[in-house]
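--- STAGE predict ---
source: upstream dedup step, 1 unique chain passed
mode: sequence only
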Amino acid sequence: MAKIGNESGGLGLVQEQKRFVTVWSCRSYTRLGSEEQERKLTDGSSAVPYCGPLIAPDALASTWNLDPWLLAALTVAGMAALMHRSRVGFSPAQDRALIVAAAGLVLAFLSPLCAATVALFSARALHHLVLVSIVAPALALAFPWRSLPSLVAMGVTLAVLVAWHLPPVYDLAWSSAGFYWLMQLALLLPAWVFWSAVFRKDQGAEDVFSHALCVSGLAAGMGFIGAVLTFAPTGLYPQHLIGAEAFGLTLIADQQLAGLIMWVPGFAPMAGFAFWLMRRVWKQGFAA
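--- STAGE serialize ---
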């Protein structure tokens, strides 16, 4: 077992089987320049987040989440999906969507991306995009779920996405596995409902126009979050300080990278899709 760090300052990173266990210390974080951040780190907690303890960069690629409860839940959900498919019959497009949804869930919760979210806030931003922009649309194509108007579903999705980025909420999701899963479901389920409405077949021009506005609103919300993360003058998520430094980033740089992720792969494709929907409305003659 090797120790890395300044033991005289009370900080140690204990590496055992290529896993880092963080031990918070007071004097090691005075460089953050914020008494509030220092207090947060020193009060805080040694709670291990759901995706596990901090992983060394060279071990990240081989770190998969093998939580038996999660594997059981995904297995049951997969069996239910296949039974529904065999009962109602799926089109080739629905089969492809089901594969994409399954792959997205594996990427988000089982793959090394899960462990990366413990180290890097930018990985957390990517995790959110996988759920909202890949898994939810794929589920909507495979299993349309229309229980809310698109505007309401978009509003709930955006509200939860904003809530995820509020430091007190993020801290609670970090320290409580139950709240972590509550927030994941609160993000995925309304996004699933929203995309189900957007992808509904046989829509009139007015419906398409309304959905284009909703997609634009969701894109704008992502852009706003990206701007806050990119231009915030201080680090908002000190839980990632040690992990960011392990990957050669500062806390601020990791946060700015998260903002760019929300902008480029988050905002841009969604805004492009909204523009495509607007063109579709125009072609249907709604402009007239």
